[in-house]
Amino acid sequence: MASDCISGATSLAQILHRRAERHPERRALTFIVRGTEERTAYSYARLDERARSIGALLKAHGMEGERALLLYPQGVEFVEAFLGCLYAGAVAVPAYPPDPTRLTRTLGRLLGIIADCRPKVVLATRELCAMAASFAEQVPGLAELKWLATDAEDLGVVALTSPIKAASEELAFLQYTSGSTSAPKGVMVSHGNLLINLAHIGSSLRVGEDSCSVTWLPSFHDMGLVDGLMGGFHWGYPVYLMSPADFLKHPLRWLQAVTAFKVTHTGGPNFGYELCVRKVTPEVLEGLDLSSWRTAYCGAEPVRAGTMRRFVETFSPRGLSPLALAPVYGLAEVTLKAPGDMGRGVVTVSVDKEALKEDRVVPLSAGDANATEIVSCGHAEEGYAMTIVDPESCEALPEGRVGEIWVSGPSVAQGYWRKPELTEETFRARMRGDDARRWLRTGDLGFMKDGLLYITGRKKDLIIIGGQNHYPQDIEWTVEAALPAVRPGCGAAFSVDVDGEERLVVVAEVDTKQQQGGAALDLEAATATVRKAINEAYQLRLHEMVFLKPGSVPKTSSGKIQRQAAKRMYLERGLQRVTEEAA
Question: What is the CATH number of the domain that holds 565?
Fold first, then answer.
């Protein structure tokens, strides 16, 4: 029984160790390639053995309570190291390893994390340790750190007999935020936060030892780490792990893995579902069997009703139930999953987009020309509270008003590492007239209707022109719909000051050749098309449309658009524009 391993545990390491003792040969983790090929398979006993060995290595270096930076490509080595930290009482700091081909884009964030968390050691593969030495001249700070390679079979230590007994309030890991609207911040997640959120996710997903999952999400990102990996070890079901690059190269490999391994739950951001719809072929579709898929969660970025609808229409003939689709809301500050039940399928509401500019929610029929469709992320669950608050006055708002989403509950993390003032402001907010409860200010905007939460955007990304609010993701979607040559999920809308007035700018990556016929893209005609679409949809005048080369729009390590960074690059003329000749 799952409860036998979970009951009384104060850390995930204890749970995994119990599973290794009681079910040593049961499949725990498998790394797969090309969707269905098993590369490395770990039983609970083998995974526990590796975690105890790495835990002993960390203990030998005096790492209890110290930070260990984890730099690994997607794979089992990262999982071993993260669990080794939990076993030894070290504080894991997952991070994206530096990419030699994109150092200017990836190294800055990593150095910022290092400067903030000040790790005592860096855990990595032997290959990355060697690479760090080659970076010494360019980045002296990397070479100065103590690097430990963990992927050798023999680490030269005697494995721990069992994980240390960590108190639930002790720090387990630092989850650095994506940095979509600001510099990354280290969210302090305790062992108790992790266990509570895993229990919360499991009860919402209705998982157990008979479940099975696959994930292609980056392991250093909260969704890929907490649900994608740790959920299986907590609840006792097998996890199949694939590379994000494998998915991006061939998105249908995700669904082929669901078919091959009878996966019951898996998910990802909206763009992942959209890619599957766009890339599917009749031949691949014919070979899919998605009848085992009970929960297809979608989060980490705004969920598009149109994407969800097309996904169901495309794949329901292959056994996918419409009720499997589960839009979710989460953030690192609550460990991962925020309040919000599942099992309803996709629930939407159509509202007046003009009223939404004034933070009012006015329902309209779905076919109305002034309507915009917004997807629900569920309602608050037992043990958690969720409310909408005026971000300026800190007063609770009634249903039908847009404001900042505030949440409260046991998986809300401890705060931001080494940022006491920001922690107090963000994690211990007080609502006017209520001093009894402390709230987490999420920075996200939304509203409640009939008890359900609807997300409208990020507070810092909101575009205000002419005194009216516009959500950048809406404008970005409009551009994508008007111009097929724009790469989906690769655009940013923001406002800039021009002669004392806010003006709208859109930047978007394009395929240098159109999909049909290979004809060159007419940038002038494309700009006119976008200008007309934005004017018709929002009565907004487009100041400038900038077409960019693929890979130019700044994104976080988890794939979120960094609109503020794109704005900075636009103002500094640092964007890689497409010329008429190149197009």
Answer: 3.30.300.30
